[in-house]
Input
Amino acid sequence: MADTEETIEAWITSREEATRHLLDLIDFNPGDAFARRAEATLTNLHAIREILAKAAKYADLCARNSENARSPTKRLRTRERNMEMAREFNKRAVRRAGLGTNRSDLALMTEVGRLPRFNLKRSAAHIAINAGLVELGRVPTKAG
Output
């Protein structure tokens, strides 16, 4: 990617130099069509350089976000959170069974996921708790 950026930058620079050199060689007359065209070319080359700089920043930002999303520490934190959610789910499921309430596992998963320390929506909570149950060696539920 760096080679491509250097190549494009070199091309833009060479075009700018050539255009400026031509402007120096001709009698600069603002009404001259060739001079107007040369100025427009310089303006367009500057715009291209700005767009490429924005694209490079965007690509760098995407690459950093991609690396962060797959980092080992984030995976470890997610795994630990999933196991903690599964433990909380099991604790509440045992309490629910003792009380004899008729609540579904999915409703309980949603409740656990919405706790302030987890702050997940329904489907994310269901996926996370099932992953935690698998990690703890317990059978995930077939709710849904």
User: Anything to note?
Assistant: Residues 72-135 form one domain. The chain has a mean pLDDT of 82. The first helix runs from residue 2 to 25.
